[in-house]
Design the sequence.
């Protein structure tokens, strides 16, 4: 009887393990087949994505400027050694001081590159840079993500005035202006200056999305998400690449 009890226990545990594996596979299949984009922004299926679309997905800091003049943006940024380039050339540059200015897309111009200021290094430098650029160009938006450290920032300026800004780097560095409808809709968590703890990233197996996970979605609602340029029709127009000025 004792041996039969042990055998029954082993069979029961094996059945439980089989059930858990089947359940896990079903959940994984559901997750893999889920729509990767929010339902209010469906993307058409494409046979193949342009090379610059994949490069843009790696952007960690970018500007979105309401303008149709690439030369005007270049002048406002005071780029050194500017030269025309393709999307692939502009986004593949790994030079620390490089900036790529995209051709206009739906009334917006993207500026992408490692030379953009990082709020976690000096938030005052970031503020002065964006305010000065906005005085020259009008509506300027800034987005920043460090998914490893969960640092993130988004700023909306117009004619030199900060309309909305939030920056987090282990604590709130910048929180100015009222929440926008897009932030509310995406349930972005914006802490007061006295709050110093973000929710743990790995507190559960299915952790809720953090602010850093939603920055691209916010950019698409405010203006333009650089990861979307492939299907929005960037075409074969050329942008400009150059070295950032010593301003920042």
Sequence:
């Amino acid at each position: 009887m004792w041996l039969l009890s042990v055998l029954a226990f082993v069979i029961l545990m094996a059945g439980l393990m089989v059930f858990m594996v089947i359940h896990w596979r079903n959940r994984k299949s559901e997750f893999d087949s889920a729509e990767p984009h929010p339902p209010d922004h469906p993307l058409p299926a494409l046979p193949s994505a342009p090379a610059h679309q994949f490069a843009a997905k790696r952007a960690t800091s970018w500007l979105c400027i309401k303008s149709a003049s690439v030369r005007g943006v270049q002048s406002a940024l005071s780029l050194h050694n500017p030269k025309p380039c393709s999307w692939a050339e502009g986004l593949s540059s790994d030079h620390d001081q490089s900036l790529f200015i995209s051709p206009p897309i739906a009334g917006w111009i993207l500026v992408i590159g490692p030379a953009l200021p990082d709020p976690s290094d000096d938030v005052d430098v970031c503020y002065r840079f964006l305010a000065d650029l906005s005085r020259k160009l009008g509506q300027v938006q800034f987005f920043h993500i460090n998914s490893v450290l969960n640092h993130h920032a988004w700023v909306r300026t117009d004619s030199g005035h900060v309309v909305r800004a939030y920056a987090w780097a282990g604590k709130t560095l910048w929180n100015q202006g009222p929440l926008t409808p897009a932030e509310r809709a995406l349930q972005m968590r914006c802490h007061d200056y006295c709050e110093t703890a973000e929710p743990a990233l790995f507190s559960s197996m299915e952790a809720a999305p953090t602010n850093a996970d939603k920055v691209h979605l916010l950019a698409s609602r405010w203006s333009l998400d650089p990861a979307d340029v492939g299907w929005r029709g960037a075409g074969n127009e050329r942008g400009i690449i150059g070295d950032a000025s010593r301003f920042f």
